Amino acid sequence: MSKKRLPIGRCRLCGKELPLTFEHVPPHRAGNSGKVRQVSGDNLFQTLRDDNSHMPWDISKCHSKESQKGKGGYFLCQSCNNNTGEWYAKEYVRFVRGIIACIQNVDAGYTGVQFESVAPIYPLRVFKQIMVMMLDVNPHGLNDEKLVQFLLNKEDREFNKEKYQVYAYLYDGPVERLNGLMVQANILTGMIITTSEVASWPIGFTLYIDLPEGYSPKGCNITNMVDYNYDDQAMVSFYLPRLEGNTMISADFRTKSEIVSTIESNKNTVGEEVK
Ligand SMILES: [Zn+2]
After folding, report:
1. Of 13, 176, 233, 237, which sits 20 to 30 A from 7 (CA to CA)?
2. Torsion of CA 228, 229, 232, 235, to 10 degrees
3. Cβ-proximal residues to 187 (8 Å cutoff; 6+ apart), any chain
């Protein structure tokens, strides 16, 4: 068998130019395996612009790449991939499996679950894996050397909780999101939110950067998971609401019917202006 040459590029964690290895995002054993169709946000937005009857969750007309391996890409060098896999991803997989077990015990149509760990978890390791995934989906990084050191050294605890807040939720929806930085402005409130998001069944995470005062994100704030040491274990309990993803836009959890009614009301407004 011929050995496939690895692409050379800038590792999104250590920043060195090295051969990059394929990384599953989210980790392979956390529900990310098998064939997937990946569509870029630009491609979906173009399709929506070209065809205004097109619904944002329908990717059937979009140009897509098929991956046999699951979701992911060539983001990290071998050493970063192996280290973070060993230090953080293993524990993250255990955590997500606990969540899956929790969902299996509730009735269909649930609106959320109270997650109680049945065995102690390592909160810092889980949290660091979430932050590694946030760097994975950001081709230009987050321009924060301290954050890089926080992830490159497993024991490091210097995390800027004022700047970064992570919210978790059960994620269910046709559009899975691996979104790099996105800045959204609300014209009515004047609020600007900056996010990055990794959301894929069964769980999603939104990273908010410099969250504006008065904005209340959906989900459960799990940023306090950084208050543990690498070897600290804890029993955790938190409520995770079930949120839907029907668009490529980060932090957009509108249901399909909410999206349809927004589209209808926009059409009506345009109609009135024409008169
Ligand atoms: Zn690296």
Report:
1. 176
2. 20
3. none
CA of 217 to the centre of ligand 1 (A): 32
Locate the DSSP E strands across the chain: 8-10, 17-24, 36-38, 65-67, 72-77, 112-116, 164-172, 177-185, 192-200, 203-209, 220-221, 237-244
Is-contact 154 168, C-beta < 8 A?
no
Please tell me the distance between residue 12's alpha carbon and the centre of ligand 1 in angstroms: 7
Domain ranges (residues) in the chain: 8-57+68-259
Residue pair 179/134 in contact (Cβ under 8 Å)? The answer is: no
Pull the structure tokens for residue 190. 């004047």
Interval 62-112: pLDDT, tens = 666 776 677 889 999 999 999 999 999 999 999 999 999 999 988 888 999
Distance 77 CA to ligand 1 centre (A): 4
CA of 216 to the centre of ligand 1 (A): 35
Three-class secondary structure of residue 86 per DSSP: helix
Per-residue model confidence as pLDDT tens digits over 214-263: 999 999 999 999 999 999 999 999 999 999 999 999 999 999 999 989 88
| 182's tokens | 């996105």
Q: How far is the CA of 28 from the centre of ligand 1 (A)?
A: 19
Cα 124 to ligand 1 centroid, rounded to whole Å: 20
